[in-house]
Design brief:
single chain, mainly alpha, ABC transporter involved in vitamin B12 uptake, BtuC, two-stranded antiparallel ribbon, 2 strands, 78% helix
Length: 309
């Protein structure tokens, strides 16, 4: 499905969800409710960007370590925060921890030829096990600072601070996708042989892609601690599959070469509103998962039909 069609379709579905939600549950489109939904969508959109980057690099790339890396960022960040009291330093350390995890992913995939699903799942397992051991033995500080809580959970002039940060990250992402490196990333995903013959170091491009995904996941992890006020084991796990879902619905091609982040942004908001509506209707978790899966299948099937047409 072309981006010119996909984005209006998702916006139309979003309007329908708001209308249905307001009809069934008065107040569903109240300002506080919308602000809360945008906060949740911002985190999902940031994790969706992680998947957008690695999927664009091709090779059936998915990063199943984003949840573990986010938890790592949260734990490392709050531990540093407890020692230094400096939120900025804690956020940098969280991102650096994610970059290191992404480096391991990238080296395993690009240099050693390990399939992305296997490599990222293995790294996630190592991180999860290490965190369990480290937290149980060291008992690091896990509380978020007031500044971090303000950045992730509060609003300014009626706009959630985390949404404004998401907008900044999105602008950087759009610039990066259009940059020379972004074109090399897309070329690597579309046809790695041709990209290599044209002078692109495809190995380096893939390693950097997984490092960016890891760094962003670690950074988002410490932002999550501000939203929930503390770091804990399994902090980022709910975003592992949902980040893949919003990337796929947003139009990112699993075979690589296509990075329509605007579609991913729309998909993150759409899925957040859908899940919020289902939760408000007191649908059980099993039912919400079924609806989520069916929504993904519907978009993929629609994609296939349009391609054949």
């Amino acid at each position: 499905m072309k981006p010119a069609l996909r984005v209006p379709l998702m916006l139309g579905l979003l309007v329908i969800l708001f209308v249905v939600g307001q009809a069934i549950l008065p107040g569903f489109i109240g300002s506080s409710q919308i602000a809360n939904q945008l906060k949740i969508a911002a985190f999902l959109g940031l994790f969706g960007l992680c998947q957008t980057i690695v999927m664009t690099a091709g090779g059936q790339g998915l990063d199943l370590s984003v949840g573990a890396v986010a938890t790592l960022g949260g734990v490392v960040g709050t531990a540093v925060l407890g020692d230094t009291g400096m939120t900025a330093v804690a956020m940098i350390c969280a991102a650096l921890a994610g970059l290191l995890a992404g480096l391991f992913n990238g080296v395993g995939i690009a240099l050693m030829g390990i399939p992305p699903l296997v490599a990222t799942l293995a790294v996630a397992s190592v991180i999860d096990g290490g965190l369990i051991l480290g937290v149980s033995e060291l008992h690091p500080a896990n509380a978020a600072s007031p500044l971090l809580i303000s950045l992730s959970g509060l609003t300014s002039a009626g706009i959630p601070n985390i949404v404004m940060l998401w907008i900044v990250v999105a602008v950087v992402a759009f610039w990066l996708i259009k940059s020379g490196w972004g074109r090399r990333l897309s070329a690597t995903g579309s046809n790695p042989v041709t990209a290599y013959l044209s002078g692109t170091d495809t190995t380096r491009v893939k390693i950097v892609a997984y490092m960016l995904s890891g760094g962003l996941a670690g950074f988002t992890g410490i932002l999550l601690t501000g939203y929930v006020s503390q770091a804990f084991l399994g902090l980022g796990n709910p975003y592992i599959l949902t980040s893949v879902v919003v990337a796929a619905i947003g139009g990112v091609a699993l075979e690589g070469g296509r990075a329509p982040y605007l579609g991913v942004i729309c998909a993150a908001i759409l899925m957040t509103v859908l899940i919020s509506l289902l939760t408000a209707l007191q649908m059980a978790e099993a039912g919400r998962q079924i609806v989520l899966g069916l929504t993904l299948l519907a978009f993929l099937l629609f994609d296939r039909v349009l391609k054949r047409a």
